[in-house]
Amino acid sequence: MTILPNPSLATLAAMAFASARGPIVIALVILCAAIAIAIPARASKGKLHIPGYAGLSFLAFALAIVSGRLSGTRRLTGSPAGLIFAILCFLLASVAVGSLLAMFFYREPRDT
Predict the structure, then answer these.
(1) Of the candidates 64, 71, 32, which has an alpha carbon nearest to the alpha carbon of residue 24?
(2) Label partner for 87 (CA 20 to 30 A): which of 2, 25, 95, 96?
(3) Average pLDDT, whole number, for the chain?
């Protein structure tokens, strides 16, 4: 059992290092943050359009809900397939968040 000097110092990173699946959690956090930042960054350059980002957001959210439900079924919980569905759920949720943010950072492309 790991004893932390101060409970307020127990952050997500500290808990991830203490768990058995720490490397997976850390990689997932980095990948989700990269996805959530990359989509609005491309939107600021005028890629796609507002209805496209809205549709992508709704589709990613719906697929995240479905994959989250599938990862929690009795047959898949604790199995490698359940872990894959859980990772997919988080990645799709970050796509949905990134698409929502992209609608705020979207710029019309310049006509050249």
Answers:
(1) 32
(2) 2
(3) 82
